[in-house]
Structures are given as structure tokens and as C-alpha cells.
Amino acid sequence: MRQFGSLQTVPEDTARAKFEHTWREDQTSVDRQRDIERVLDAWRTVVIERPYFPEHPTLEEQDFQATEEYVLRFYRWGPTAHEDPADSPRAEDNGPTGASLTPNMAVQAELANLRAERDHLRREVAEKDEQLVDQRQLQRELAQARAELQRREQELVRANVALERFRKRARGGPRTP
After folding, report:
1. Which one, of 103, 110, 105, 83, lies nearest residue 94 by Cα?
2. Coiled-coil stretches, from where to where (predicted)?
3. How far apart are CA 109 and CA 117, in angstroms?
4. CB atoms inside a 10 Å sphere around CB 119
């Protein structure tokens, strides 16, 4: 049996056939309405239980397994081709027998390589940001140079117009304002 505030519901097996409730005497109509809405919401709720069978993994588990297999099969344990070998730590076999890496060591080596790759990518991003700032500065300077060129061309046009007027006056031609 569930209870919401002062409203009680009967067990699930009889709830659909017969809906019973009891009210407290001091309950306001607003409280009653809210309790009714809660009960109706709960009554309409359908709980779906999905049984879990380990022999049938979920989609997320299948995705994780595929990713894990991919990493174990194709991930390079050494530095990537674009990395500087001096910047990234290498996973090396410990011991004179050349035994293979333990799972913990493999994970540590993978983490070290991922960190080195992350640092390399961060340096690349910083360089690109600097180039972008330089490019924006050059674009501003270019815009200023174009504006200065346009201003000087306008001055040259005005000077040419004034020169033509002066030449016409010197030749004795009609005056134009």
C-alpha cells in the first residue's frame, strides 16, 4: 500500500478495479487536489523492468567492448608519428627477461601516451591561436592600409580636379566653380 500525504491508495492488484481514499478533516481543497494529482500521476505511471542477462550484453556494453578491443589491438604503445620522441615517456618492459606488460602497466603506458598526445595537441592549439592572432592583426593593418590608400586616392582626385581648373584658367578658358 502506498500513501501520499493524507491520501491512501489500495494495493496495486485492486487499484484498477476499486479506487479508495480517505481524507483528513483538516485538509484544504488545494491539498486534496495536489494529492489527487500525485495519485493519478502515480496511477498512470508504468514501470518497465528490463531483466539483465550477462550473456546478452546491452548496447552500451557492446560499444565499450568493441572500443576496448580496438584500443588493445590498434593503439600504438610508442609515441605517435607526429610526436617528438623526447617529449613522451615510453612504456618499457621491466626486467631482464623482456616479459610483456602487465595490465596495470599497459594502462599506465596508455595513459602516459594519451597525456603526451594531449600535451602535443595543446601545443598545436596554442600555436594555431598565435597564428590566428597574428592573422587578425595583419587583417587590421591591411584594412587600415586600404583606408589610407582610399583617402590618398580621393586627395589625388581632388588635386587633379584643382589642377585642371588651374590649367583652364591659365589657357583663358571659361571659369567653372
Report:
1. 105
2. 104-169
3. 12
4. 13
- Please tell me the distance from the alpha carbon of residue 175 to that of residue 169, in angstroms, as a whole number: 6
Cell digits of residue 34: 495536489
Cell of 24: 483528513
Query: Which 8-state DSSP code applies to residue 59?
Result: H
Give Cβ neighbours of residue 1 (< 8 Å, ≥ 6 apart). 8, 9, 10, 11
In the chain the beta strands, taken as DSSP E runs, fall at 3-4, 7-8
pLDDT, one tens digit per residue, over 25-81 is 666 777 778 888 888 877 777 666 666 666 777 788 888 888 888 887 777 555 554
Give tens-digit pLDDT for 96-113: 444 555 778 888 888 888
Report CA 128 to chain centroid distance, whole Å.
19
Give me 91's grid cell. Answer: 612504456
